[in-house]
Amino acid sequence: MSRTPSPAAAAALAASLATVLLVSSCGVKNSGNAQHAQGGSAADLVSAAKAQGQVDYWSTWGEKEPQAAIFKAAADDFTAQTGIKVNIKYLGRSGTTTMPQAIASGSGPDMFDSGTDHIAAFAGQHMTQPIDGVLKLPVPGEDGKSVADVLPPNVLKSATDKDGKLAFVPHTLISTAIWYDAARSPALAAKQPATWTEFLALLQQQKAAGATPIAQDGLVNFYNAYWFYELMMRYAGPGSLAALGTDASAWDRPEVLKAAQGVAELRPYFQDGFMGTKYPAAQNDWAQGKAALNINGTWLPSETRPQAPADAKPSSFTFPMVEGGHSTVEVGSLGWSLSAKAKHAEAAQLFMSHLLRSQVIGRIGTDALNIPSRADAKAPDALKAAQESILKATETNTTYDGATAQDKWWNNVFLPLDDQLLSGTLQPADFVAQGKKKTADALANG
Amino acid sequence: MADTSTARGASRSSRPAFRTAGRARPGAAQGVSQRDAKGWFRLFTWPAVLLYPVGFLGPSLYGVVISFAKWSGPGAPLTWVGWRNYVRVFRDDTVRQAFVNTALVVLVGGAAVFALAFLAMAVLRDMRGRAFVRAAVYLPSIISMIAVGTSLGFLLNPDGVVNRLLGLLGLEALQQTWLDPQHIFGCIVVGVVWMGSGFYIVLLMTAVDAIPKHLYEEAQLTGLTRMQQFRWITLPLSRDMIAIAAVLWTANSLRTFDIVIGFVGTAGTPSVNARTYAVQQWLSAGHTTGGGAPELGYASAMATLLTVLTVALVVLVRRLGRSDRLEIS
């Protein structure tokens, strides 16, 4: 079943190998304790990859989703160029449930889909290994540029674990922003609120005009948490929200109360009965112009596209600044992890370097309508503002500030309290007091 | 060889026939030896004997063992923590709330289901078109709870069908934010009752069908009302089936899970007000929106406690429902 590469493909492979040899001659050393992941020299990795001859990739994308089609085409191309076969298995979104067992038993894949949110969980289950070795691999056909060269530092940071090791190779960026439809809000398209004061004024103006300022799917507690999380990032900066889950005394910071008070200020501006609104009713209402704003992830434009009018022009602005606050921007990403028990680790890493070619990552913007991980790949119009703010950011934080890694605290302490704060059943001072007490109890209870 | 064995078999078959005379042993009566019957019996029980320990006992015991460990699943290190997971369960406010919610489903939901079932026993017994009515009330029981929860969830949105209908009927005062944290669990209990009552009505009606009709005819002649007939005939003669139904309800409602997920959806985790014990256990097993590792030891401790509670409640319900069998002459 081996396939003979075409002359063009052979030339590309030869050029790729020559670049690898050039890079390896610079004396890159094998470092770290994961031999596969750190990779020895790039030339060694390519040789080992070819000897292995195949890659097993388990995908949690649906087979008919654009991402699956993009990666399948790239896999076919990789096979044509290198002779290394890529076996793709589509597990769907629930695939991560069965993956730990498969990996532990040695019957799992070489590589699988991952994301910023999953770094801690996958590491905790010993499913992954660091893949810093990929960074020095050349991206084929790109004049010797390495993976590290084509991925901006902000993007790499979003795929890095707490020890500073690369946990996965990112292909898509995700962030949070406040969304509006430029076609229905031309004034907002001309000038977006830059400060919290301006933002509240905008909300008041919308409400006075008889519009619903914010659409909120209140049954999705982690959507409700966007407001407090973003205000914490503004007032206290990266690390401040995550600290609330690991240290009860972190609730004593005055910025926590300020952020809670900011959330309370928003209550009059949501749609009626927002806490009882089931997803995706509110975001669909926003898409149809029944509400002016919606806070959400960068997937919102593509997710609401079927419900939106044909002339809709979704766009976004970053969360407004507070006086003396932080200008941090959320950068999360989706990508590919290397299995801790990968049988074809080198082949998988070589495949990842091929997946980062501009013609593959570019399709994340054009076909999947998401933000590509490469700075030179264009995001769709609706996400241009979000891409720009990510690339320009001088200070970044991961999704929810990484607080979700404290899974039990996040789901049992923080999210319920945040729901009560947003709905008004808990006032800001009580929110802080209960947050401190319940966090202390949760930490004491293990 | 064949003749010898046949002769031996014949001699064997003759002995049990004497020993079991008068005890209605079908095998013996039909000339099949007791030993042969036992042999076949053992042969046919082997699959069950093998599958039960492998498919149920083993995993169950493994779950109990894991409940004494801190473990995130295959591939992760396993650390023995003694009774710590059990202590944590009792100290966990969220588990306590989830347990209270579950108790409400069992008690309040149970009261509603059995009230409806008793009403059906009194009314449906001799009603025209009762077969159709039974089929109609049973229908919700065969629909997926996820589907029911999901549908009800959308019907109960602030601008959903329920509030719109109330508005059309001029009942604006009754319009609610049905799915907000204050109301959502009440809606879930109503959904559970709507789904579950059909099954229990059909179950109890089978007991009613077995009651001889002449008892009711005699009761009518003596002037007993329909409720008196229910009190003095239907209820006592259906007692065994009611006890069975109560046991089934207890065991099933303690595991209420999918309707909650249907109501809330999988985007986000259910609010604490909406969580049942099984939902909380599911979340502890790593099915959250967070990025933490699953706590399988903790989830196993929750499961073990639920099993113990279920067994205790089932035994209690059986004891409460125990009665001397009534003989009908």
Automatic annotation (TrEMBL), chain A:
Keywords recorded for this protein, A-Z: Signal, Transport
Q: Which Gene3D superfamilies match?
A: Periplasmic binding protein-like II
Annotated signal peptide? 1-25
Looking up PROSITE patterns in the UniProt record yields:
PROKAR_LIPOPROTEIN (PS51257)
GO CC annotations on file: ATP-binding cassette (ABC) transporter complex, substrate-binding subunit-containing
Q: Name one GO biological process term.
A: maltose transport
Q: Which SUPFAM superfamilies is this protein grouped with?
A: Periplasmic binding protein-like II
What domain of life is recorded for the organism?
Answer: Bacteria
The molecular function GO annotations come to: maltose binding
Entry keyword annotation includes Transport: yes
Q: Does the keyword Transport apply?
A: yes
* Protein family: Belongs to the bacterial solute-binding protein 1 family.
**Protein name, please?**
Sugar ABC transporter substrate-binding protein
Its taxonomic placement starts with: Bacteria, Bacillati, Actinomycetota, Actinomycetes, Kitasatosporales
